[in-house]
Amino acid sequence: MNTIPITTVIDFSPFLGSNNLYGYRDQNNVVLIEPQYLEADKFVTTGFAVVKSKNGLYGIISHTNKVVAPFHYSRILLTVVNHFTIAQVVITYQVRTEFWNWKLVPNLKLGIVKEKCKAFVIENRQLITTKVYTVDPDIKREPFLPVETIGKRFVCIDQDLYKAKRARLKRIVKNYVGMFDNESKIVRKVNNEKVRVCNSRGRKVQSFETIHNGVFPITFKGKEHLVYLNKKGSMLKKAPVIYRDTKRSGRYYVNHEFDMPIPVHLKVIDLKRERPLVDIWKNVISICPVPHKHFFIIEVKPMEEGQIENDFYFMNRLGILQDFLEDETDFILTDYLK
């Protein structure tokens, strides 16, 4: 069982009773719900919990022990977004093959196991999505649809972004990629060649072209250098995706940080360890924007043979390249490493 978040404002704690079943009690050991479940999760902040009944299946109860989702499910996941509780419930069932198939293909399995995952909002019974999968033991699949809470108002469910309104969750965009500019700009994937920036209402603002070869230009003293990203062997957590504004400025960007363009010109090189600029650009592995510090991490193959770790440089928005940081406040490089 999984429950998100694990913190709770409801002072109910599961406990194992003398009958080997679980119930709930408060901090003073006063029994609030009598032991009656095979398993019991903590209550989430909105007042719901996942429990397993004696029939071996899971359901959802409220803090008053009212059943809000029947005990029909093989798995349940709760996610709290603002004042809403998103429930993912999975039911497992078997589909028998047609009788005529048995004669045509004698080795055909007589039944196919399927799973139906339904995501809905408990408070208003709003159905978000339903997916059906065929269970194949040779194929590893996540037990639930991917869910990511973003800030206090947004949640991404299976690549679609929703915003918590007063009465319901409203879908803002499909194929969500990311956000920037204090959650006021949303990026969605249009196709393999383009992403689109929308406002918080989902309306188009601007489009950017995906640069699949990961190449971007930068000049120094009037000479243009092309930077080729060799992503193999990167120590950074996030692989870079390069985009270009082909309609307006022509500037290049990394990932979805569209308010932080890559500098067009390199103005100053300030290195404590000497290394030719051509050699640096030739051996770039990856690049990662750090928006709150207004610089890019440039990951480069090590200059010395036998060196295990890669070299890291820092290039700010003004075009100053350094191999050190003058101000390391609010930044730890290891937070960005695998």
Automatic annotation (TrEMBL):
Any Pfam family hit: WG_beta_rep
Protein name: WG containing repeat-containing protein
